[in-house]
Amino acid sequence: MDASRIKRQLKRLYVYQRYVHGSLVGGLIIALFVLVLVHTAAAVFMAPQLLLSAQAGPGFYIVTGTTGLILVFLVVFLAGAFAGDISGGGAQLFLSQPLSREAYVAAWMIAVLATPTLLYLLSFTLPLLILDPALLGAVGVTGTGLLAVEVVEVGALLSLIAVASKSRAAVVVLGLFLELLLPWVLLVPFIVLVSVPGVGQRLTWAVTAYLVLFPSKYTLFATAPTGPPLTPTQLAAAGLAVAALYAALTLLYARYRLEVK
Amino acid sequence: MDVIEVRGLAKRFGRVQALRDVTFAVPRGRVAGLLGPNGSGKTTTLKILVGLLRRDWGEVRVFGMDPWLLGPEVREKMGVLHEKPLYPRGARVSTLLRYAARLRGYSYSDALRVARLVGIEGLLGYTVSALSRGYLQRLGIALALLGDPELLVLDEPTANLDPLARAELLRLIKVLHRDLGVTVLVSSHIIPELADVCDYAVFISGGVTLDWGSLEELNRKYGVVSVYEVSTPRPRELARELISLDYVYGVDVHGGLLRVRVAGEASPELLNVLAEMGVDIESVRHVGGELGQLYSKVVTQEAAG
Ligand SMILES: Nc1ncnc2c1ncn2[C@@H]1O[C@H](COP(=O)(O)OP(=O)(O)OP(=O)(O)O)[C@@H](O)[C@H]1O
Ligand SMILES: [Mg+2]
Question: Is this complex's ipTM strictly greater than 0.85?
């Protein structure tokens, strides 16, 4: 592959991702609006308490938990739109133009996982920073950061499911299962076993794997007797590595397998 | 040089063997018809040429490149109209044209030019869900014409068009071919339509290509009537001479032009006779034949042997 070919492909990727974002702009704006509204309101109402105690209480975590759910729904919905575009939407049209399958998939991955995560992080940090930078220190970025990593992972996995299944329904059902049901179901054996003396120690690998896949559950293990096996930074790095693996598999699938009607 | 070269192509969908052995070539500057019954593999072949489907077996070259691996490079020079064009739901006509043009490095004004050419310039603000089937087809044609392609791949292009739009599209194909030297591969069931525009044909049945080549060659090979247009300063005398030849079935005079119907296998003899007449003949052009007859002869002959 020579440089001018790569340059042309990047230019087309840029053009096409603008189209994709344009087609999703309505949903993105509504989600951003709700996120900014909730985060700003939470920051304003809880500012006195946050600044006094210099750490976030359960009230704030309820807010970020709720907005995190909005982010999850958004990513699942966008991944579904991606699958729908492959099976019966724009894929045939745009892949009949000089756009490569890899660029097509990359543009959608940007829209499915990068854009919503970025909007989420901005909607969270900007209101705090604007009100008082000290608020961000009090709340910390661990919780939202790990949530963002988890959503990027799920988004990348759902992109892989989207190209492989081309089915909106499969993506949405799996996405909701992965985020709303599976982490809690898997949590049950941990809660039971962690407190059993002697067993807890041997669960470290399982807990590590669980946390790499669901980093946002980190705080649940912060108080476990064994403690979390990884630091938040390690966890974020591991989670992003998993996401990168999914993304690479998605691009490879696009290169060698993805067929369009 | 052949713009399209296909050898031993095979493709299976689950339990359906859609293509078994598709082999043909289309030289530059030809208007080639892809003819075959329903389910014979025309659409599958075209999608492999575009690079949307992957072949299981065989060789495919478009402009000398493999469309599955070098899709963008192939499609830079290719315009495509699908049998069932799919459009993203809720998208505006203008948006689709704008971004398709940009992907080709063209501007919106170029997109407007093709929109006018196919008569959808009044619908640019509409969403695709508001378009009738005929206008969806026209939008597909506009998208295929964007960026002045050297090769047009058209899968049943006149489907859903009213008679006027149909005639206009066929005229457009002829103009693109004659004035710009565009190569065309067009599938259709409507044989008279294809006979009107094609000078080349590929016959396919059951996922196997039966035969392919210029209509002149095929007519000769299968003994099907060919039609030549002869331009001459003394049409009446010439017509009288030609009609006396026993392999000439008919001669029509249109001013200085003769349309001569000749038994396909005897067309070389006719050409020899015309060549010997020297200055009296200004030009000779093969303009068609009985494509329907050719179609049934190819199919029955291949089935027999
Ligand atoms: N996506 C698919 N999945 C399963 N079978 C398919 C698929 N696409 C095509 N086929 C089958 O492959 C064969 C060839 O289909 P194709 O659409 O290429 O034929 P065609 O010549 O274009 O037919 P038509 O004249 O009806 O358009 C048919 O038997 C068809 O049912
Ligand atoms: Mg077809």
Answer: yes
